[in-house]
Protein: Metallo-beta-lactamase domain-containing protein
Amino acid sequence: MKWSRLPLGPIQTNCYVLSEKDGTCLIIDPGDEGIKLNNWLKEKKLTPIAILLTHAHFDHIGAVDFIRDSFKIPVYLHKRESKWLNDPSLNGSQNFMMIQPMRVKAADQLIEKEELLTIGAFQFQVLETPGHSPGSVSFYFENDKLVLSGDALFQGSIGRTDLAGGDGKQLIKSIHDKLLTLPEDTLVLSGHGPETIIEDEMNSNPFLNGF
Structure:
């Protein structure tokens, strides 16, 4: 499996495209610039088969409808945020002056629990990692030694918890219980900024020291 990072939108949210040899791919958090993303996929001759959302904040969902409609593919989101896509007060778009309030159509598949999911040739574990938002999840690809952590864990930092449903203690617990327990060489693909590895965050992330 290959992965690509495309920073999109006004705050450069990382959209990830995971692809297999047959050209099928998963799109994680298509935050904005749907035309740009669509053109990139066509240029790379990739065929999306699903959109996965780590959570439903506006900067992670802005291109969802465009890409979903372009390729006729399902969107996966945790059930705790099932109403957020169409609610600007919950997805945060009404508070961001650079964009219009955002309303996205409902998810096609709701994630209800931690489980092993298979979509096409892709198999991965859903990890519930709330704290940044109530329905935040991470996607762990054990065979490829990588986890997509959304806005839970960053290189040298963690997600903010001052938005709707945020909980700082819960976020720290999620990181320690679900992410730092992964193999230390696991690659972390975050919602913003560069990639990191679990070992580095265990040893040097200042927000996690002392726990």
Remarks:
- The first strand starts at residue 2 and ends at 8.
- The chain has one domain: 2-204.
